[in-house]
Design brief:
The complex is a heterodimer of chains A (about 190) and B (about 575). Chain A has about 190 residues and is an all-alpha fold. Chain A has five helices and no strands. Chain B has a single domain, classed as Cytochrome c oxidase-like, subunit I domain (Cytochrome C Oxidase, Chain A, Up-down Bundle), CATH 1.20.210.10. Classes of the chains: A mainly alpha (about 190), B mainly alpha (about 575).
Chain lengths: ~190, ~575
């Protein structure tokens, strides 16, 4: 990421620390996305054992509502990106608007997935693999959403300033992770 | 225990000597050196535990009948926990400990990139180890370290669940540790140290860390599903309910074959350091060794299905056989580079060097039997026999453990400020080397003759071989206590070590032994070629370090050579 104006005022040690955090976050994301890839492999292997997918007698999941919340999730990614730009420019009002809107969209996404989770039939591999994948993703969405809420409080308490916005940047990158992981799952669960 | 004291550096004001006691290693610390020692001490504890289980295995196999164990299930638990402990609680943490201690020092850094995360990664290991041991005593952890379903789902008990939880913690620990290594190596090198000026041990840790961060999440996924099958009523691995037992094998081996390289690549790094230092020669083919580590990391992801040759469809066997053969190429490059390194060098047969040379001979045997197992017809013939047990131990003991032994003799002075006793070291070596060979080489024969692995009872015609193996194994087990005794004795009575007793050029030696809390006084200046031995410039560099830090034992352990004009590239 390009160095912003505030970063130019950081000491050498602070810049190294920031660089470490950014590299660490990237490596963590590359690593942890592999668990989601693993679950996709599981899905593919199980469906390869069945002549049809979903198996005969099982209704495919309706895709309209999940598609809508997937779009909302992508929009939330755009919002958190704007929120980071806002706090880097010390525009707190704009930050709160964008950040909280993203949180609301994230909550809506989790609510819809929870609805899907509850309404899908509870037996059979089609259901089981869907439930495990979506639950695993939802745990990440909720945990990272809670972290973003915590960051909101830190900004409100003026503990995050334009000089050091790593907490917001980390929240944004983690939310990107939620979005990327979900797009992979959405394609596997609803499209392919 | 006596305090391990760092000397006050001559001519340096304001730096308090570091006085460390045993209690400092029993509590939370973010100092990478303390964490490194914590890793290594914990690993040694589990080495003794896992080794004791191995002795019980060999005791049981002295006779064809079950006589020591209560039944076959008790024997199943024995080898399951032995394998898991040795891999996940001995070799991997030991190597993480060496990496933790050495990587920041070799890079001239004050610490790892994320000291708190480093400590957190370590402190996941003791509870994980306790869960594993608890699982053994709870019982019914009977599916081997590979834990294939349905053995691990339908025919195991609560111990198996604890096994899976333990591995989950260990996996998270590995991932966090590896993220730290990658960031440290990428971002915290000193001025003048590009990637191709890094010590080869650092290259090996980098390649290992890349494997860990990419492959270990697959283990996490597999274990999650296994736990769900065991406790939540899912049936991912139960074909009767639409599941698939091969699903576990695919996902598990996607992690666990690269895990072999997680265990052996850092050992390669150790060997590269030891051979160059103790033969006073520049490393032959530095770039080839460095890049072959990355090649192994890459190709290692394409070979997992050779563990499933007997259950794989025929058309898939050939591609995996080819990739399994290909991965021998970068390993072969390393072996020839190491031979080129010592060729024509001034070899000093220190204990560290003896173990490095023993690694070369024994690991090559393990590598060759690996190529044999990569061949489909041979693999099918010796599938699930003692040939596989032999291969695995030649790679992991003949490779990783012998390298670790060498590394202990080499870096013990830096870590403790005391030399290990060389006479005891050589006794340790001359008992370990033949005992290792006689323990594991005859297993090839037993396997080729058809003795299956993981059985407490066997056909009477295999008894002679098994008696030889067991006696050699007992000697091997006893030899370990010579090392442990040497460590404890030397901590109290060992000769004080200078900053650089081996006259090495890598940066961990450019500071006192043990290093101060900040590792270095000022910014260390790396020698342009970390293996540029035998040159006037190298001689002057080491002498300048000696002037700065003093030589406790003026003769040093390796004599100074002003110029040998040895070149190897």
């Amino acid at each position: 990421m390009a160095q912003n104006v505030a970063e130019q005022g950081l000491s050498r040690d602070e810049l190294i620390a920031l660089r470490n955090k950014r590299t660490g976050m990237t490596v963590f994301q590359i690593s942890w996305i592999m668990v989601f890839v693993c679950l996709i492999v599981v899905n593919w292997q199980l469906r390869s054992n069945s002549p049809t997918w979903p198996p005969a007698g099982v209704e495919p999941l309706p895709w309209a509502l999940p598609t809508i919340v997937t779009i909302l999730l992508v929009v939330s990614g755009w919002l958190v990106h704007n929120a980071l730009q806002a706090i880097n420019a010390n525009q707190l009002g704009r930050f709160f608007g964008q950040w909280r809107a993203a949180l609301v969209l994230g909550a809506a996404f989790v609510a819809v997935i929870a609805f899907e989770w509850i309404t899908i039939p509870t037996t059979g591999q089609y259901s089981t693999v869907f439930r495990v994948m979506t639950a695993y993703h939802a745990v990440h969405a909720v945990a990272i959403g809670l972290y973003m809420w915590y960051v909101d409080g830190r900004v409100r308490a003026e503990r995050v300033t334009a000089r050091d916005t790593w907490a917001v940047e980390a929240g944004m990158k983690l939310w990107y992770f939620v979005i990327a992981a979900w797009i992979m799952f959405y394609l596997v669960l609803y499209v392919l | 225990m006596a305090a391990v004291t760092a000397p006050t550096l001559p001519g340096v004001a304001g730096e308090e000597p570091t006085r460390l006691h045993v209690s400092d290693y029993l509590r939370w610390s973010v100092d990478h050196k303390i964490i490194g020692v914590q890793y290594m001490a914990t690993a040694l504890f589990f080495f003794i535990f896992g080794g004791a289980l191995a002795m019980l295995i060999r005791w049981e196999l002295l006779t064809p009948a079950i006589d020591l164990m209560a039944d076959g299930q008790a024997y199943n638990s024995l080898f399951s926990i032995h394998g898991t402990v040795m891999i996940f609680l001995w070799i991997i943490p030991m190597i993480a400990g060496l990496g933790n201690y050495l990587v920041p020092l070799m890079l001239g850094a004050k610490d790892m990139a994320f000291p708190w995360l480093n400590a957190f990664a370590f402190w996941l290991i003791p509870p994980a180890g306790m869960l594993m041991i608890l699982g053994y005593f709870v019982g019914q952890t009977e599916a081997g370290w590979t834990s294939y379903p349905p053995l691990s789902t339908l025919f195991s008990g609560d111990g198996q669940t604890l096994w899976a939880l333990s591995l989950h913690l260990l996996g998270i620990s590995s991932i966090l540790g590896s993220i730290n290594f990658i960031v440290t190596i990428r971002n915290m090198r000193p001025a003048g140290m590009g990637y191709f000026q890094m010590p080869l041990f650092v290259w090996a840790v980098l390649a290992t860390s890349i494997i860990v961060v990419m492959a270990t999440p697959f283990l996490a996924g597999a274990l999650t599903l296994l736990i769900l099958d065991r406790v939540a009523g899912t049936a991912f691995f139960n074909p009767a309910q639409g599941g698939d037992v091969l699903l576990w094998q695919n996902v598990f081996w996607f992690y666990s074959h690269p895990a072999v390289y997680i265990m052996v690549l850092p050992a390669f790094g150790v060997i590269s350091e030891l051979l160059a230092v103790h033969s006073r020669k520049p490393v032959f083919g530095y770039r080839a060794i460095a890049l072959s580590s990355m090649a192994i990391a890459l190709v290692g992801f394409t070979v997992w299905a050779h563990h499933m040759f007997t259950s794989l469809t025929p058309e898939l066997r050939i591609p995996f056989m080819i990739t399994s053969m290909i991965i021998a190429v970068p390993t072969g490059i390393k072996v020839f580079s190491w031979l080129g390194t010592i060729w024509g060098g001034k070899i000093h047969f220190t204990s560290a060097m003896l173990f490095a040379l023993s690694f070369l001979s024994m690991f090559v045997i393990g590598g060759i039997s690996g190529v044999m197992l990569g061949s489909v017809p041979w693999d099918i013939h010796v599938h699930d026999t003692y040939f596989v047990v032999s291969h695995l131990h030649f790679v992991l003991f003949g490779g990783s453990v012998l390298a670790i032994y060498g590394g202990i003799y080499h870096w013990f002075p830096k870590i403790t400020g005391r030399m290990l006793d060389e006479r005891l070291g050589k006794i340790h070596f001359w008992i370990t080397y033949p005992a290792f060979f006689l323990t594991f080489f005859p297993m090839h024969l037993a396997g080729m003759l058809g003795m299956p692995r993981r059985v407490a009872q066997y056909a009477p015609e295999f008894q002679t071989l098994n008696v030889i193996i067991s006696i050699a194994a007992f000697v091997l087990g006893i030899s370990t206590f010579i090392l442990l005794y040497n460590i404890v004795w030397s901590l109290y009575h060992g000769e004080k070590a200078s900053a650089n007793p081996w006259r090495a050029l890598t940066l961990e030696w450019a500071t006192s032994s043990p290093p101060p809390s900040t590792n270095f006084i000022g910014d260390p200046v790396p020698f342009p070629n970390p293996y540029g031995y035998g040159t006037e410039a190298a001689y002057n560099y080491v002498e300048s370090q000696n002037k700065k830090y003093g030589t406790v034992n003026p003769a040093d352990y390796l004599p100074a050579e002003k110029s040998t004009a040895v070149t190897s590239e």
